[in-house]
Amino acid sequence: MHRVEVLERLVAAVHAENPVQILVTGDLVHVGLAQEIEVAARWLEALGPPERVMLVPGNHDVYARDSWSAVARLWGPYLSEPYDPLSPFPLRRVLESGGAALSLIGLSSAIPSALFMAYGRLGAEQSRRLDALLAGARGLRCVLLHHPPLPAMSHWRKGLLDAAELERVLRERGAELVLHGHVHRNVSRIGPGDARIFGTASASSGDEPARAAYRRFDLDAGPDGWRVEMQLVCVDADGGRRVIETEQWTAPLRDQAMPV
Q1: How far is CA 146 from the centre of its chain?
Q2: Distance from CA of residue 96 to its chain's centroid?
Q3: Omega of the bond prior to 57 within 30 degrees of 0, cis?
Q4: Which of 123, 175, 189, 211 is most buried, most CB within 10 Å of its CB?
Q5: Three-state secondary structure call for residue 226
Q6: pLDDT in tens, 46-59
């Protein structure tokens, strides 16, 4: 069901949008082999330079216990700026315009799992650091991870094992956007603290009902808050761009001061 020509059409449509930032929520490869990871590194280079592309890994990216060394070596610049191989997550990237800031925070839920399993885990240290980052983050906060962030959003066999802890952090600290992948379908819901949670179908899927799609977010910080418009877009066989879902909302402005 995953086809190269579908992915190529979708990437062309994304490039035509001229986005400020492209966010990728993982599963670039199948079973985390070094050869796959090297091919995916060339694909990332074609997708865009590291300063315009931010990546968090999926469970397939680290399927083997020795996958991470190749991921860190070949994908490192897309994981963080600057990349710290000893303690890379959570990632943080801040985009600024006109005095407003967008804080992108990337988590890794990717861990090697048993055969026929696809679960993930953040771990206590990553959750602790996320708590601190959300508390001090500038402007609108957008959290990226591969697995769905809340309990019961997927079967335990494929779920985030410590989703309850992530739910607690989101409830207590807040985040305006949470973006995930993993489930290969389009998901939209309101989470703790009015966080908008979105999952998106695989970018290479040619099958219905989970056809390849991407989401475009237009953000504008005004006096009454962040005006956000989300478009869910699929790409037809002739390359035509088709908006299949739109949402608009306002998120409250937060202190734009630099965190300590």
Answers
A1: 6
A2: 19
A3: no
A4: 175
A5: strand
A6: 999 999 999 999 99
